[in-house]
Description:
This protein has 76 residues and is an alpha+beta fold. The chain has one domain (6-74): Transcriptional Co-activator pc4, Chain A, CATH 2.30.31.70. It has one helix spanning 58-74, and strands spanning 6-17, 23-31, 37-43, 50-56. The protein has a 4-stranded antiparallel β-sheet with strand order 1-2-3-4.
Amino acid sequence: MSDIQYEIKKEIAVLSKSDRGYTKEINLISWNGKEPKYDIRSFSPNREKCGKGITLNADEAAALLEALQNELNSRD
């Protein structure tokens, strides 16, 4: 199995941090030299390892944002 390469092009936000130092982050990441995508996943301290996550193109990220805004606004 080939190694997966990634490059964080832009750090957007740390969504949470565990007591063990793991962070859940949203970043703009290029996987294997491809076009960067929005990416939500957990990372170990110093980003030595990353967990399973989700990648979104700009249209998918916009749809997610709209869905979350609608959900959060309906909670009132």
